[in-house]
Amino acid sequence: LLRKGNLSRDLEKRVIMMNPKSQTINLFPAVFVFLLLCAQPSQATKDSSKGQVKLQNHRVGSSVIFPVSGNVYPLGYYYVLLNIGNPPKLFDLDIDTGSDLTWVQCDAPCNGCTKPRDSQYKPNHNTLPCSHLLCSGLDLPQSKPCDDPEDQCDYEIGYSDHASSVGALVSDEFPLRLENGSTMHPHLTFGCGYDQQSPGPHPPPPTAGILGLGRGKVSISSQLSSLGVTKNVIVHCLSHNGKGGFLSIGDELVPSSGVTWTSLSLKPPSKNYKTGPAELLFDEKATGVKGVNFVFDSGSSYTYFNAEAYRAVLDLVRKDLKGKALKDTKEDKSLPVCWKDKKGLKSVHDVKKYFKTISLRFGGSQKNGQVFQIPPESYLIITEKGNVCLGILNGTEIGLENYNIIGDISFQGIMVIYDNEKQRIGWIPSDCDKLPNVDQDNGGDLSEEEAYPRGFGLIGELFTGTDASKNKKDGEL
């Protein structure tokens, strides 16, 4: 992991296409035969394309809503449960608006997987060929991904914390219950990850994989939209009190009024949910920091400012704390900047009076700008040691350069709307504990023993020393 203190993972994650004929993993003979058989385009894959044509002619325009489990601290991530396959099998997936590719741990067999074999995805003659539209949709402009269009479509995705997943693209049923009462079984494309690497000092999260909700063609929301199942709109609402929240694909939960909207950046084209420049305010007053672009990324536990913005915020916070009961502490390594009280703290509400609201004003002047407010409870955490720590981190220090990220900590108590139909992003304060029209008894328990603050979906080349191809291995499924 790309950590200093307790940092996070990924911003537009890099996807690398590889020629499967260039190298081959040495597998045991029996496994090798099985994988070779699976490499052939199958009848199931051909049938799935027919099913997709039918769906495209039957626009439903409903939404799918998932209960969300997780928290910023101590767990460090949010996840949903998703059925894949026929018969369906349940997988817990880390929700990530910072990357496109959905992938699950894959029994092919699997190297570096955290799930036992019976909890991994089992491929069944359903790999996709290089000629498939979504294989090129993984997009690397500099080279043709495969020598032969019938080659298996392999992927390698690298995250900025040096974690990576290598595997093959597959297609399978995703049984979905829509909010209009109908059920559907669209065939969607995702990654069958047979080689996961997590070289950082902390163990990988215990989830089965990543639910990619970025702006690219291979993201689940884009695929559902292209099939006419839902609109290409993503909504998430993360709870302040650790109850999780909810995630929606489709536009049914979008309020008809009260939402603050700002435009997504279109130049240069980005798979991230990047907004136009914003001005940084502290206690509703100008800080002098302007022209800051932000990425909205549910794949990051914390919020990251560039060095200038981070220093401005830290200086103002420390100025406010002079003469107050809170004192700096270096004993707590949960995050880089922490304070302690005379007695252990139990809640941010115990100390929020000492801190001011931070705001980002998008789109221009005071009169017509769109303001995203980050109150103290959306940038502070109380650690297990009873201290309060700053959940805004210095992104420049860990190689993000001028990228600024709004992460999960600042999404709490807010409905965030990623509207790919109108190329905009919106937010409105909400009670994220109330799950709209969905049975809440749908979650699962994951270990909270190890905090795993993830990070961003940024392209790997932007980060010094990040090279997922160091672990490059190709194999046939």
TrEMBL record:
<feature type="active site">
    <location>
        <position position="297"/>
    </location>
</feature>
<dbReference type="Pfam" id="PF14541">
    <property type="entry name" value="TAXi_C"/>
</dbReference>
<keyword id="KW-0645">Protease</keyword>
<dbReference type="InterPro" id="IPR032861">
    <property type="entry name" value="TAXi_N"/>
</dbReference>
<keyword id="KW-0732">Signal</keyword>
<keyword id="KW-0064">Aspartyl protease</keyword>
<dbReference type="InterPro" id="IPR033823">
    <property type="entry name" value="Nucellin"/>
</dbReference>
<dbReference type="InterPro" id="IPR032799">
    <property type="entry name" value="TAXi_C"/>
</dbReference>
<dbReference type="GO" id="GO:0004190">
    <property type="term" value="F:aspartic-type endopeptidase activity"/>
</dbReference>
<dbReference type="InterPro" id="IPR033121">
    <property type="entry name" value="PEPTIDASE_A1"/>
</dbReference>
<dbReference type="GO" id="GO:0006508">
    <property type="term" value="P:proteolysis"/>
</dbReference>
<feature type="domain" description="Peptidase A1">
    <location>
        <begin position="78"/>
        <end position="428"/>
    </location>
</feature>
<feature type="signal peptide">
    <location>
        <begin position="1"/>
        <end position="44"/>
    </location>
</feature>
<dbReference type="InterPro" id="IPR021109">
    <property type="entry name" value="Peptidase_aspartic_dom_sf"/>
</dbReference>
<protein>
    <recommendedName>
        <fullName>Aspartic proteinase Asp1</fullName>
    </recommendedName>
</protein>
<feature type="active site">
    <location>
        <position position="96"/>
    </location>
</feature>
<keyword id="KW-0677">Repeat</keyword>
<dbReference type="Pfam" id="PF14543">
    <property type="entry name" value="TAXi_N"/>
</dbReference>
<dbReference type="InterPro" id="IPR001461">
    <property type="entry name" value="Aspartic_peptidase_A1"/>
</dbReference>
<keyword id="KW-0378">Hydrolase</keyword>
<comment type="similarity">
    <text>Belongs to the peptidase A1 family.</text>
</comment>
<dbReference type="InterPro" id="IPR001969">
    <property type="entry name" value="Aspartic_peptidase_AS"/>
</dbReference>
